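Structure in, sequence out. Go:
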């Protein structure tokens, strides 16, 4: 009988334990964590000449292997072995973006998916190879590193309405570089609902609402004034609340500084981490449709804000043009759509 990697030290825990018997039939194989006492599951081949473990081993652990078999002459045989798995310098946990959804929760066509590790990844190619995205219907996509811990995934253009996306982060046992290994495998499925895209134009001060590519209506708006222009480009809704306290102190502008504010706004949907929302503002109804006077948000009348809130949700898109503002940074929540497809692909270690 042969025990794979018998006597090994520094074994990757994702490597299966395999016991083979030549001229004999295996009757029982037991692989035991010597410190914890738990056994590793596995199964025999149909001809009982091969046993293979069916679950990964633990990091930094010692295992004993006892294999029993019956020889061709009917006599019992036994083989024993030991092996030791590697101990990582650190283990990186793969947090998924967005968080695993509650039952029934769906996302818009602009939803970005991603993985954020809690340790720096220096072998980005190894990480990407372990991150598998499956879409139905099939669509092209690519990873792009936002920083040394965070990688996002998107298609060349927005997702097709009705798409199902499954992200499998199979990083356990994967060497991410610098002695950092993946802590655990994770899998999550997201579903994309109808296409809802709003097109906010700073020249006309109007916002067109498109449902599955068809214009469903137009709303007067007020974007950011010259001193605080709304970022240009595609924005993606990352949160929605019926009531939100907006405080300029959150980005360092506190009273009595000019431009400081603290107010409660309603029917608010966040479109960037720079304090930009689509929300109700009764105080600017007179300017909506004629001038841009906000601190960077997209102001709507109470009636229009509630109608927008009823239809738009997480992952839906708000495209801003002619705002006078700079492009939304790619790192700002879901600024990913600012990049061309070629530039996006260039951010992958495998491109």
């Amino acid at each position: 009988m042969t025990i794979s990697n018998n006597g090994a030290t520094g074994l990757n825990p994702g490597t299966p334990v395999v016991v083979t018997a030549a001229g004999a039939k295996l009757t029982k194989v037991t692989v035991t964590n010597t410190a914890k006492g738990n056994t590793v599951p596995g199964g025999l081949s149909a001809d009982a000449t091969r046993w293979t473990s069916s679950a990964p081993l633990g990091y930094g652990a010692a295992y004993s292997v006892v294999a029993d078999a019956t020889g061709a002459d009917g006599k019992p045989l036994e083989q024993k072995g030991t092996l030791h798995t590697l101990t990582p310098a650190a283990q990186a946990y793969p947090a998924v973006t967005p968080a695993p959804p509650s039952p029934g929760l769906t996302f818009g066509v602009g939803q970005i998916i991603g993985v954020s590790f809690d340790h720096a990844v220096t072998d980005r190619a190894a990480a990407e190879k372990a991150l598998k995205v499956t879409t139905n219907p099939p669509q092209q996509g690519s990873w792009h590193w936002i920083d040394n811990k965070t990688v996002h995934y998107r298609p060349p253009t927005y997702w097709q309405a009705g798409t199902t996306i499954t992200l499998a982060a199979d990083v356990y046992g994967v060497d991410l570089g610098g002695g950092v290994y993946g802590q655990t495998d994770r899998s999550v499925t997201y579903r994309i609902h109808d296409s809802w895209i709003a097109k906010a134009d700073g020249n006309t001060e109007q916002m067109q609402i498109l449902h599955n590519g068809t214009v469903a209506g137009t709303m007067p708006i007020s974007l950011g004034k010259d001193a605080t222009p709304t970022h240009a480009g595609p924005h993606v809704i990352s949160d929605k609340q019926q009531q939100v306290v907006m405080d300029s102190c959150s980005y360092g502008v506190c009273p009595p500084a000019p431009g400081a504010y603290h107010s409660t706004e309603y029917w608010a949907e966040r479109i960037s981490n720079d304090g930009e929302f689509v929300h109700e503002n009764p105080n600017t109804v007179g300017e909506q449709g004629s001038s841009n006077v906000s601190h960077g948000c997209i102001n709507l009348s109470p009636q229009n804000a509630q109608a927008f809130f009823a239809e738009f949700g997480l992952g839906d898109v708000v495209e801003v043009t002619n705002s006078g503002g700079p492009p939304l940074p790619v790192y700002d929540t879901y600024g990913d759509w600012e990049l061309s497809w070629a530039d996006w692909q260039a951010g992958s270690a495998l491109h």
